[in-house]
Amino acid sequence: MDSSLTRVILATLGGYIFLLLILSIYDWVEEEFPIRPIKQTNSERIQHPFYHEEAIKALKRFSQLSTSQKGAIKKKLRNNLISMEQWVKDLQQSDLQIICIGELHEESTRRFLAERFFSTVNTDVLLLETTPDKLKSLIRRMNNGRDYFPLLDADILDILRTVKNKNPDIRIWGIEETDDQEKHQSKHSNPRDQSIAHNFWKKYKKGSRHIILFGANHCTNESNWLFKNLWNHASNPLKEHMLNVNVLGEHQKGSLEAFVYFLDEIGIEKQTFVVPDTSALHPQIHELFKSLNRQILEQYCSLIVFRSF
Predict the structure, then answer these.
(1) Do 149 and 34 contact (CB within 8 A), yes or no?
(2) Residue pair 185/191 in contact by the 8 Å Cβ criterion
């Protein structure tokens, strides 16, 4: 083969390999050292126009009620909606052992949980939506002083640091379904959550407070999801010590935004608040906000709503 042609071919291959190497290094750096996203602020009061119609209709129907009926609803709301501080205080004094916190994987939610929940709540065991191997990598990054690293698209290191500072002896486990479990899945509905539930029970310690932080659906009352699976397999005495909670920013769901708008308009203005028992809300609330009822109130025992976080 002509030597000049050989040199051209080798140079081309060398350039191609060099380019692949550069791209591989770039991908590794981007994955290993992700940039913290810039905090986006949307101050618009109405961000879900479709659901806003539900708020307008609810206000109209509310205005048509008698003075005594309106007073009863507002009194009930004032009793049912408590501050985050009061709820945390009540939680600390309770003997709950399993708390499933359903979240949307967003930066604002993780910031709120780190600063307003995990910094004040005593936790013995924290269980996360990741595998044991991936959790080891996250903890290694935290111990190495990394400021930011996402788990499911939002920073998790701040929560890890917070719980460790609050309780240096806390046990942190990753209970996500492993690749090996996925290969041996049964044909039952939602086998992933069955695997997660199995992993939870392997880490469960009687008498300890376990906080599960998972995506919102996993903590609902829907059959075949994690919390319902745990509930079905818990002893009757333990069921009395279990709680599922949904934590949401006021604009993260349109149905919730409509409810918060309604509260503001009728004079029940709240900042961050908690509905400790969703079933205890006035029946008219369930009737006026059917989307909220279907999506959240029927699915969780408690609801945390944070604003401007």
Answers:
(1) yes
(2) yes
Burial of 260: CB neighbours in 10 Å, binned 0-12, 13-18, 19+: buried
Q: Is 246 helix (H, G, I), strand (E, B) or coil?
A: strand
d(CA 298, CA 33): 40
Cα Rg of the chain, angstroms: 24
Strands (E), the chain: 82-83, 98-103, 125-128, 150-151, 154-155, 171-174, 210-215, 242-249, 273-275, 302-306
For the stretch 43-66, pLDDT in tens is 889 999 999 999 999 999 999 999
Alpha helices in the chain (DSSP H): 3-32, 49-63, 67-80, 84-93, 107-112, 132-143, 157-166, 179-183, 191-203, 226-233, 236-239, 254-265, 283-288, 290-292
- pLDDT tens column, 170-225: 999 999 999 998 887 776 677 899 999 999 999 999 999 999 999 999 999 999 99
Tokens representing 130 are 């990741």
Phi, psi of 174 (to 5 degrees): -100, 120
Burial of 214 (0-12, 13-18, 19+ CB in 10 A): buried
Residue from 171, 135, 136, 164 nearest 151 by CA: 135
- Positive or negative, the CA dihedral 208, 139, 135, 132 is negative
CB 303 within 8 A of CB 297: yes
Distance CA 17, CA 20 (A): 5
pTM, rounded to two decimals: 0.88
**Which tokens sit at 216?**
């919102």
Identify whether the C-beta of residue 197 lies closer than 8 Å to the C-beta of residue 229.
yes
Asked if 126 and 163 count as a contact pair (C-beta separation under 8 A), the reply is yes
Distances (CA, A) of 110 to 26, 125, 175: 28, 18, 19
Q: If you search the block for the tokens 């967003």, which residue do you land on?
A: 106
One-letter identity of residue 93 = Q
The span from the CA of 239 to the CA of 230, in Å, is: 9
Q: Are 182 and 195 in contact (CB under 8 A)?
A: yes
